[in-house]
């Protein structure tokens, strides 16, 4: 078994007897794009409870920062403006969560527990307590005051957030992208922020990382950014799950996190 995250060149060529490629990350788009990945060898992604907890905390932090208008109060502080802004209740806000896998389903339910109206989108029908699950992406975009992207990166989701998508979202909506930078067309997002179509964006991932020091998002007033830290692999919770999968492999039992390489997740 190969335990890999971002394997160096020639890794797979030197391992001709592989029975499993096990990612150390929950996302496997980079692995699947590796032309040397041996075909016919199963690929498993990491289902890390610590990472799921961290991602849920990050999503909650961003949503609450936006909901409680802290991003606006930070701007007011920088300008030394003392002004109280209108308060909204959580039930008045609709949050759309795109991607209802191991990360998205937990985050969506956590948001619902905090009183938000939550819409969830996935390609396949899902049922989650207190979450309205839909397979119509357009309906989710049009109804959501804030959209959280937790989608896997596939051919279908690459560049999903472009000018047309932003036009479908309500005026002044917010975007939280904690999945992959390639989900967002950065120029289109910048235009949407500059026009006020999108009021704010919380970005943890980017088309090119690390973010270039001259990138406009560093100083854009409509952007809160973090350096790809929304959820890191947590060894204390990840290692037992990997060991358990190794034992399943040895016993020829079904594996946790087995990837459908045709769909990309």
Would you write up a description of this structure?
The chain is an alpha/beta fold and 265 residues long. The protein folds into 2 domains: 2-48 and 233-250, 3-Layer(aba) Sandwich (Rossmann fold), CATH 3.40.50; 50-225, NAD(P)-binding Rossmann-like Domain (Rossmann fold). Helix content is 31%, strand content 15%. It has helices at 29-32, 49-67, 70-78, 102-113, 137-143, 163-168, 186-195, 235-250, and strands spanning 2-4, 21-23, 43-44, 94-98, 117-121, 132-134, 146-149, 173-177, 198-203, 223-225. A 7-stranded parallel beta sheet has the order 6-5-4-7-8-9-10, with helices on both faces. Helix 7 links the parallel strand 8 (173-177) and strand 9. The radius of gyration is 20 Å and the shape is globular.
Please identify the oligomeric state. Answer: single chain
Number of helices: 8
The global form is globular
Percent of sequence in beta strands: 5-15%
What percent of residues adopt helix (DSSP H or I)? 25-40%
Average predicted confidence as pLDDT: 97
CATH topology of the largest domain: Rossmann fold
Strand tally: 10
Separation of the first and last Cα atoms: 19 Å
**CATH H level, superfamily name of the largest domain:** NAD(P)-binding Rossmann-like Domain
CATH class of the largest domain: Alpha Beta
Going across the major beta sheet, what is the strand order?
6-5-4-7-8-9-10
What structural class do helix, strand and pairing data support? Answer: alpha/beta
Number of domains: 2
Tell me which CATH architecture of the largest domain applies here.
Answer: 3-Layer(aba) Sandwich
> Helices and strands, in N-to-C order?
EEHEHHEHEEHEHEHEEH
Largest sheet: 7 strands, parallel
Low-confidence stretches: none
Rg value: 20 Å
């Amino acid at each position: 078994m190969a335990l890999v995250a971002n394997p160096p060149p020639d890794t797979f060529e030197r391992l001709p007897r592989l029975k499993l490629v096990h990612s150390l990350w929950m996302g496997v788009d980079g692995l699947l794009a590796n032309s040397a990945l041996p075909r016919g060898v199963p690929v498993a992604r990491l289902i890390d409870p610590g990472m799921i907890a961290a991602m849920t905390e990050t999503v909650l932090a961003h949503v609450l920062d936006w909901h409680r208008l802290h991003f606006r109060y930070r701007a007011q502080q920088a300008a030394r403006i003392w002004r109280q802004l209108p308060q909204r209740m959580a039930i008045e806000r609709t949050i759309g969560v795109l991607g209802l896998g191991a990360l998205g389903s937990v985050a969506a339910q956590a948001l619902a527990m905090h009183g938000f109206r939550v819409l969830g989108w996935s390609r396949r029908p899902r049922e989650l307590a207190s979450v309205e699950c839909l397979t119509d992406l357009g309906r989710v975009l049009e109804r959501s005051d804030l959209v959280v992207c937790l989608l896997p990166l596939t051919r279908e989701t690459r560049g999903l957030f472009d000018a047309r998508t932003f036009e479908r979202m309500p005026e002044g909506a917010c975007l939280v992208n904690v999945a992959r930078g390639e989900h967002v067309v950065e120029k289109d997002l910048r235009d949407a922020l500059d026009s006020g179509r999108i009021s704010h964006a919380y970005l943890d991932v980017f088309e090119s990382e690390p973010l270039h020091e001259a990138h406009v998002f560093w100083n854009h007033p409509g952007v809160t950014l973090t350096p790809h830290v929304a959820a890191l692999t947590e060894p204390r919770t990840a290692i037992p799950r990997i060991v358990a999968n190794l034992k399943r492999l040895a016993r020829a039992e079904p594996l946790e996190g087995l990837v459908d390489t045709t769909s990309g997740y």
